[in-house]
Amino acid sequence: MTALTVKDLNPASGAEVSGLEPKQPLDEETIRVLRDLFDKRGALVFRNLDIDESFQRYLVYTLIGEEPPATAGPDVDGEPPPSFFVSNREEGGGAPYGRLLYHCDAMWAERPQPVISLYGVQVEQPSVPTMFINMGYGWDTLPEHLRTSVEGLQARHGFDHSYPNRGGDENVIDSYYEEPRSTVTPVVHHHPRTGRTLLYVSQQATIEILGLSPEDNEETLEVLFDHLYNSPGVLRHEWQEGDLVVWDNRLLQHARGTVDLEGPARTLRKVVGPMFLSEAERVRPTFSKVSGT
Description:
The protein is α+β, with helices and mostly antiparallel strands. It has helices at residues 28-41, 53-63, 135-140, 144-150, 214-229; strands at 5-8, 15-18, 43-46, 84-87, 98-103, 115-123, 130-134, 154-159, 172-176, 181-186, 188-190, 197-199, 206-209, 235-237, 244-248, 252-259, 266-272, 286-289. Helix content is 18%, strand content 31%.
């Protein structure tokens, strides 16, 4: 087994792992340790790695016990999509500018992707950090009176252009689709792999809690968002070239500060695990500022 050193990054989530030798396949004991860490901490951070897309995809699949594909397959149900860049430099890069609110990718889908990774290909300083919060920790620390108030409620998540983005400033951008898309889940949700109880609402993607008036909806969500996003459980990752961050997209939400198109280069290679979206659902969004949508 490779000698690994592990350091927890905050009370809620995140572990920095040192000593990983990026080879395929990893030995069974290393895989066991990494899977256990991933399920407990939700996000693994590896620094100063020299890896290609193939190893990045191998690790992403291996952490959730799935058989990794040799290469990215066709863009069809269950097959891995090709990697792409979250970048303010690469042509066609995702989210090239602006600030992103907390969300889970594809939170509007019945089966959002289980795992996401970003690798620092080109990172000039100062670089904009990525923040993470743990919805399991959010539920574990939710006061009893708030637990009672949300148990049994359901929320609709997605993109409906009749609902404003809750960011509150002109730097916020949103994923924009031509057609509305959404799904309904319990506010008190359960992780499909680990069974952990989650406080399942997000600032970017949750449209409404069903059965509440518009005023009560916004008031309730604001209280829940304040609990989730203003706690010691916020994990802030300061990017450097060679960083690899892999996180559980069903457990953690992520957000980002404001990226400037003319600012320091920030190119992160994004590789995700298996996706179970229809061909229509796989249409990539455009990224629009609030005032432009």
